[in-house]
Amino acid sequence: MSLIERQEALTSLEGLLASAIMGKGRVALVSGTVATGKSDLLHSFAEQAAELGALPITATGSLAERDLPLGVLGQLIHDAPLVMEERDRAMALLAEGARTVMLSAPGGEPLNQVDAQIVHALCTVLLELSERYPLMIVVDDVHHADRASLLCLAYLSRRVRFASIVAVFSHSTHGRYAETSFPTELLRQPHCRRIQLAPLTQAGTMSVVAEQVGKDAAERFAVEWYGLSGGNALLVSGLVEDYQTAARSSGLPPAELVPGEGYGQAVVSCLHRADVKMLQVASGLAVLNQSDSLDRLLGTGQEYVNRELHSLSVAGLLSMGRFRHESARTAVLAELEPEQRAELHHRAAVLAYDDGGATSAIADHILNAGRVEEPWAVDVLEDAARHALREGRVEPAVAYLRLACRICTDDQQRVRITTALMRAEWRINPSTPTGHFSELTDALHRGQLRGSDAVVLAKALLWHGRFADAEEVLKHLGEAGEAGEKLDADTVTELVVTRPWLRCSYTPFLSHLPQVSGEQSRAAILSVAAYRRLESSITLAAVLTRGPRDEIVNVVERILRGSRLDEMSMDTVESALLALTYGGRPDKAAPWCDLFIDEASSRHAPSRQARLSAIRAEIALRQGDMLGAEFHGRLALDIIPLSGWGVAVGGPLSSLIIASTAMGKYDVVNDLLDQPVPEAMFQTRWGLHYLHARGRYSMATDHPQLALRDFQRCGELMGRWDLDVPWLIPWRAEAAEACLRLGRPDQARRLVEEQIRRCGTSAPRVHGIAMRLLAATSEPRHRPMLLRQAGDLLQSGGDRYELARVLVDLTEAFHALGEYRRAGMIGGRARAVAQECHADPLTRSLAREGDASAAPAPGAVAETADVTAILSDAERRVAVLAAAGYTNREIADKLYVTVSTVEQHLTRTYRKLDITSRAELPSTLELGTSLPA
To answer: Where is each HTH luxR-type domain found (predicted)?
Structure first.
């Protein structure tokens, strides 16, 4: 008989029921896989019985109740509407029949036979009931019924031919009966019909889905509905449930069809309805995630496995030998008892190892097994962790290493694994590895910690401010060298690379690091990665002690081009980015930093992402991008909480404080400054940044004395550590501004002049900041000239916020001199730049200067992009300087052209912009361009 779909089968059953109501009893054997939804079909058929004039009584076979004598027939008797006398008689017959079945044969086994008279009497109860009501007897999964019930059902089926009964039995295509003759006995009856169900076609699947979620959703995910279900009606229902759940939770139709809990439960339900052998093979497949070696895992023959895999595929659960979706596999695994799942994974690990499988696959099985006693397990976990870290899979690597530590019996090896675990955990959260400090320190004293690992431990202790412990570790290394112990190459490499790194961040501890001879240093740097680490840290140290060199950009970009965020390269990338940032090239550092932040995110390394975000915040500050600095500083502190940052918390916290202060968010800064910071931070580079940020806030809130104290302490530490360079922190300029507020102009001028002297030509940004303050200490008539120079320097240095401060001061200077027209022009430009930086305090200070500077120049062009497009390069250069308040003579001198040429360019500019004077030039004209040097 051909396979038929659900609706056609339902129509056939309705026809059989109509015949039974007419007194012509019928029997139907409905066969199909779990994919066909036969149980749902019978349920729907039973629900329609009353409408068709029949009384349904139902039962369901269960593998768990297969040994319960007359269990299925008992379900039918209990479901039948019998009068009291009939029910008592039937219950007595059931009890008597069960006793008969359970009688033991001479060999001790149950007889599994039921008395023929009891069978006849029980069936008579149902036959007599059909004389009062047309009966529809439905038994689902009849292949799971007990043998005694099957004998009774076969007897009943032979006698319904002339009764008002339709008996419908469903069974799995691959089901195995307790009484193997049952289906043959039924099908040889002339009034019995076989109905073989087929899985839903794609069109049938679409029809079922459209009924429940609508035609639009059915068509939008047409491929997914069928591809994930394979035409299995139960799986379709599970997918529909997940779709509806997602729609309810979001309030919108889901953008994609994602199998979830409903789908997983449908898969499990299918397997429990199927034969136990299918469930066994499905469980093994879920563990291995492939069919290879499945027979060996389960201890069965290949033919057995192939047969059950075919059954699973026909049922729609598999495609190409695998589950159709990972959620199906997950659900099957979750259904296993923990002990059973662990044992299967243990056997899978051994099989994979014997077959030379990938260490990551073997390690996953070991991990899921919980513990494997085989001697090779620890080495496999170590190797898998190394590969995972190289690929950016940090969390699995941590899991491998933790298990390796737990099962390792060799002390030396366990110390090595613990060090690797500390490094891996650091990538996720720097506070996690603190739990290993005591163990590793003890191992160091026992002589079990390698020298290179001891250096790594010392760096971790420094990060968390445990300076005494770090000194002890470094001292132990030094004593080993003094005692004549030869340091291995890895240890020498770490010592050589760590020296310039300490110089930049933990300068006071440099003296505790053991010295390595020049010959040893040269011999130790053997790998490209080690050379990059050394070169980047040396470059940063040079910037912070001697100043940036002209070739710094080329050197650093060469280092960064060859670097990826693998296990050892974070220090390389960090030092290189900071060398560009402190070296006055934040514009070059920004795109590189963004690139590495994206890589850290894709590699699921939150600790690295946070550290890079902290650097990105510092970059944004030096570009005057306060909103960007706030965003990246906040992101860094959100990814790693304050407690995880150790002494390095001063980095992102300082950027966030300075940015929030500049934007006038003083309540936010109050909360940030209320956060406790480790006192040890003030012995590091990050402490300098924190003092600078706190001083900035004190200045903004009118506490110059507090600000001066922080700036002077910052300068004292920088001098003590030989890091007193203006491109790190311009503490003299900051202290000069505090002195001006305190009424000490002479002291302020001395500080400013010293700051300018130290800048040379390498720090235009700091030079511009200092020139602004030099103007403040000068006579009013000299201030515009000095402020213009400051503006040119800051335009070159790329700091928009400091440029806005210069423009505000220039506006005030012109006001003081009574040049209100110029004040208005510069005020408009100052406002535009201040608003670009979100510097609300600067914007408010401009509003207090009066209407002339507070309002934009009349007739000013609104869109800078349009202006740039219609002016030539020469016209734009002249217009930029004219809008900045320069006279025609001054413009001619700066551009090395004649005054007449300047006038001609301005005339053409006015005509193109449809304005009549320089007062109407757009205030934002200089944005996106550079003022000539």
So the answer is: 864-929
User: For residue 726, how many C-alpha atoms fall within 13 Å in the half-sphere facing its CB?
Assistant: 25
Where do runs of H (alpha helix) occur along 318-450?
A: 326-335, 338-354, 359-369, 377-390, 394-407, 411-428, 437-445
Q: Name, in order, each residue with C-beta under 8 angstroms of 743's C-beta and a sequence gap of 6 or more.
A: none
- Beta-carbon-side half-sphere exposure of residue 358 (alpha carbons within 13 Å): 9
User: 619-649 in b/e burial notation, b at 16+ Cβ within 10 A?
Assistant: bbbbbbbbebbbbbbbbbbebbebebbbbbb
Q: Measured between alpha carbons, how far is 735 from 712 in angstroms, rounded to an integer?
A: 7
d(CA 689, CA 713): 11
Inter-CA distances, 833 with 378, 800, 920, 921, Å: 61, 7, 17, 15
Helix (H) or strand (E) holding 615: helix 606-622
Find out whether 316 and 199 touch, Cβ atoms under 8 Å.
yes
pLDDT in tens, 655-686: 999 999 999 999 999 999 999 999 999 999 99
Positive or negative torsion for Cα 15, 18, 22, 24: positive
Could you give the 3-state DSSP secondary structure of residue 730?
coil
Helix (H, G, I), strand (E, B) or coil at 179: coil
Three-class SS state of 171: strand
Check if the beta carbon of residue 530 is closer than 8 Å to that of residue 493: yes
Q: How far is CA 302 from CA 53, 292, 306, 307, in A?
A: 51, 10, 6, 9
Task: Give the chain's mean pLDDT.
Answer: 86
Total residue count of the chain as it appears in this document? 933
CA 321, distance to chain mean position in Å, is: 30
Predicted confidence (pLDDT) per residue in 727-740, tens digit: 999 999 999 999 99
The pair phi, psi for residue 293, each rounded to 5°, is 70, 10
Q: Residue 140 and residue 32: Cα distance in Å, rounded?
A: 11
